[in-house]
Amino acid sequence: MLLPERTGYIIWVSDLKAARTLEKYGTVHYMSRKMHYVVIYMNAERAEEAAKTISRLPFVRKVERSYRNELKTEYTKDAEDKTRFYSM
Predict the structure, then answer these.
(1) Is residue 75 part of a domain?
(2) What is the reported pLDDT for 88?
(3) Cβ atoms within 10 A of the Cβ of 9, count?
(4) What 8-state DSSP symbol labels residue 5?
(5) Residue 26 sits in which domain range?
(6) Exposed, middle or buried: residue 60 (CB in 10 Å: 0-12, 13-18, 19+)?
(7) Which is more confidently placed, 88 or 39?
(8) Any domain includes 22
(9) Residue 62's CATH number
């Protein structure tokens, strides 16, 4: 079974109780009570139109796309390790 491509969005809200309705657009991963934002994951092919719909909701202040899946997570050791020069 092949999993669909998913993309994440950070949605800044003014009302967290109303933000529970975002579950119908995708999977709510996290809701910050202190900073008033919601992290939501949805299918990539429908994400742009869903983000436009979400941004029109009255309790939504701002919608940002998450770039987490585009960040490089494999690192190479190009530079020499200098920790042995600083040890006692």
Answers:
(1) no
(2) 59
(3) 22
(4) P
(5) 6-67
(6) buried
(7) 39
(8) yes
(9) 3.30.70.80
How confident is the model over 17-62, as pLDDT tens digits?
Answer: 999 999 999 999 999 999 999 999 999 999 999 999 999 999 999 9
Q: Which of 32-36, 67-71, 74-78 has the highest mean pLDDT?
A: 32-36
In a domain, 57, yes or no: yes
How does 18-48 read in b/e, with b if 16+ C-beta sit within 10 Å? ebeebeebbebeebeeeebbbbbbbeeeebe
Q: Minimal CA–CA distance to 38: which of 52, 22, 57, 50?
A: 22
Q: Where are the beta strands (DSSP E) in 1-88?
A: 6-13, 27-32, 37-43, 60-65
Tell me the C-alpha distance between 30 and 19, whole Å.
11
User: How far is 77 from 73, CA to CA, in rounded Å?
Assistant: 13
**Dist. CA 9–CA 7, nearest whole Å:** 7
Whole-angstrom distance, CA of residue 43 vs CA of residue 25: 9
Is 73 part of any domain? no
Domain count, the chain: 1
